[in-house]
Amino acid sequence: MGRFLTYTSITSLLIGGLLLWRGIHDVWFIEETRMEWDGQTLPQRWKETLLWVHLGMQVSIGAALWASVVWRLLRPYALGGATLLFAMYTVYSELALLERLPRKPCACIGWWEGSTWPWLVGVNALLLLITVTLIIKTVSERRGAMT
Question: What is the reported pLDDT for 22?
Fold first, then answer.
């Protein structure tokens, strides 16, 4: 715990950077982002609100993960937020892949252009696994430090 850049810190920086990059990119190109969200199976009257909540979550969780490298008390909360976000991504991707939504949405909301639903399920599940592992590691380190 005495080292500044541990595995948990470096991974938090990488995941936080990914979320910050995607959130800021989507805000910067908001019209393109709105078009991507129009291809999703969300109630029309909720789309704009959900879009801004989603972007706010990406940016705030990404910033919290970066801040948690220095302010370690924030880390479990930032990782918890990232875990919830990646769990939602994974479930939505799986539902789209299995065609369990009212209509098949486009995979244009993925991390990179040209993403497919099988690829998105794999990436989101991997990110979910990483954040869960980091939470377990962080909590176990804290418990070890308390005793």
Answer: 95
